[in-house]
User: What shape does this take?
Amino acid sequence: MSQRVIIIGGGIVGLAVARELLLRVPTAQVTILEKEPRVGRHQSSHNSGVLHAGLYYQPGSLKARLAVQGIRLMTAFCQQHGIAHEICGKVVVATSAHELPALDKLWERGQRNGLRAVRRLTPEALSEIEPHVAGVAALHVPEEGIVDYLGVCTALQTEIEQGGGVVRLNSAVTQIRECAAGWVVATPSGEYEGDYLINCAGLFSDRIAELAGIKRTVRIVPFRGEYFLLKPAAQSLVRHLVYPVPDAEFPFLGVHFTRMIHGGVEAGPNAVLALAREGYSWKDLSARDVADALSFPGLWRFMRKYPSLCSAEIIRSLSQRLACRALQKLVPAITVADLLPGGAGVRAQAMHVDGTLLQDFWLEQRPRALHVLNAPSPAATASLAIAEELVGRLPFVSAAR
Assistant: This one.
């Protein structure tokens, strides 16, 4: 009897898992339940479109291994399907001497994680690559690039459906019941029965896990990142991906410049608490999501740990002048007049009750279910590798080896 598998979430991770499962177990009956009218509606397409090579992540961590493996799998997938992508390279720039030890640590991580041809740059060598970028030293990461992630999602959906899988759109999950035969998942359009459940619900992964009987030991806290676009006349100031050395005291990468695969240059993002899990502006408000965040002790402990940084992020969200000042640390020639309002994305960040953020991917497995409870950046880059990892853990796949 073929396995009936229900995957909740039609983002890039859920789609990649469905494809991988059908490749390994062609007889499986795979159904994706996605609440939106199309796949890849949120984190998968509301991002900067960067292919991350694994420079930042703790050596030996799941995130480091899957990022390095994932960018190579994703590049091959894009080549196979004719999806727009470019391996344009990235520079990580130290703008002052006190950032040099952190830059050295990044270089060491890149070596240990298996990145190819990462090299140190003097200010003169940096100027040859990025003449308008200011720095006392930099790293050049040639493997990194940009991609059309929505195009990836569309290609994944096509492969799934050609392989016999089913993608049910407009199918928000309202109830999950475990029964003797497996699971019954209720949506407004009907109920779906399955032997095995995989939760890839992203911004709502903790709530889906709770519906399936998992106590919420970690909470998804949504952080919104807002971008500017450079006006056409200023786009020549940036040739590649240009990133700062991350602040070790704050768990985000900092504002950076990203060339986009369909043209243009993004600058940003900041990182502010979103007032809705799918809130892309200050006007987007969900009373339930706000109450959920504010009632969580971990958020208050996080804000007490980083008070000045949290307030600075909010101020930069509200002041284009101060946001520009942050960008000028990397590209001094940028002015407020060069900036246009850009898009925004919301990061589904899992947080412990003590206020620490989960830095690695977080998976919780049960006898008949697998929950992806933390898959922040670089999950889009690593999605095909994440899929291989998840599918390899499924008991009916392991038993078939």
Summary: The longest helix spans residues 62-81. The radius of gyration is 21 Å. The chain has a mean pLDDT of 94. Residues 10 and 34 are 5 Å apart (CA to CA).
